[in-house]
Amino acid sequence: MESSKGFFDGVPSQTSFIFGIITGIAVVLMVSYLFGLPGTSATSRTNARVAENEAALVEAPAAELTPPPSAPVGPLPVIAKDDHVRGNASAKVAIIEYSDFECPFCSRFHPTMQQLLQEYPNDVRWVYRHFPLSFHPNALPAAVASECINELGGNDAFWAFADNVFGNQGGVGTALYEKIAQDQGIGLEAFRSCVGSGKYTQEIAQELAAGQAAGVTGTPGSFLVDANGQTQLISGAVPYAQVKAAVDAAL
Q1: What is the DSSP-derived secondary structure letter of residue 170?
Q2: Where does the chain cross the membrane (predicted)?
Q3: Looking at the predicted structure, is the pLDDT value of residue 17 above 50?
């Protein structure tokens, strides 16, 4: 009976030794590639995936996670005269929304707030504050554009900007902002000068920092404030019924 020969049968021992070393190195490289040792490209790819996952969690739809309302973790800035307010300025309940013009879940939540004001025209006021997320490249430029629209066209023009941007989120960019400005009767030269000055960038950054200090970790992050000043944080694009229930409990 003829026995089958192994691969190394007949190979000189020195050659076998060298071949073994090469094979070992190849195995180490393969493990590094698959599992990512420190300093390897696989680690970089893993870190990138973690960042993507964190970004996804920041914007996870509340309809799926539905976190219960909670108290703010830090002081919430009081509503000031330079805030963007929609609805009855003397309403018993205020909802202060920290939002991002490029956030898809903010776009989903926008009609919820519009519906709320329609149902509670005298009892609810809606306050918009900026919270542009760093991984949304159009969020900060849109926030700056909205402030220039507000400066040149007033509070109603600001809310027209918000409605248009959230209603046309796939087209965010300079062309859309300038069209909104023109529709609001604002001259393009003045609008472009305001945007180019960058004078609102620091103010927007301060709003974001204040939101973070109060407990906002993603967008939309909204605070319901009742007539007694009691405050609760509502995270995410929660369904209309959930917001309505919170308002009814606060009235």
Answers
A1: G
A2: 16-35
A3: no
Q: The domain that contains 147 carries what CATH number?
A: 3.40.30.10
Residues 70 and 35 in one domain: no
* Residues 215 and 169 both lie in one domain: yes
23 and 144 belong to one structural domain: no
- pLDDT above 90 coverage of the chain, percent: 70
DSSP 82: T
User: What band does 71 get if pLDDT is binned at 50, 70 and 90?
Assistant: low
Q: Are residues 114 and 164 in the same domain?
A: yes
Indicate if 214 and 94 belong to the same structural domain.
Answer: yes
Q: Do 97 and 130 touch, CB atoms closer than 8 A?
A: no
Cβ count near 148 (within 10 Å): 25
1 lies in some domain: no
23 lies in the same domain as 84: no
Q: Which of 123, 139, 157 is nearest to 243 (CA)?
A: 123
How many domains are contained in the chain? Answer: 2
Which helix (H) or strand (E) segment is 208 a member of?
Answer: helix 201-214
pLDDT > 70: what percent of the chain?
A: 71
The predicted pLDDT at position 69 comes to 56
List, for residues 131-146, the tens digit of each pLDDT value: 999 999 999 999 999 9
With contact defined as beta carbons under 8 Å apart, do 41 and 61 qualify?
no
Position 119 pLDDT exceeds 80: yes
Establish if 84 belongs to a structural domain: yes
Is the pTM value of this prediction over 0.85? no
H-type helices in 59-200, by residue range? 62-65, 104-119, 139-153, 155-167, 174-183, 188-197
Residue 44 C-alpha from the chain's centroid:
23
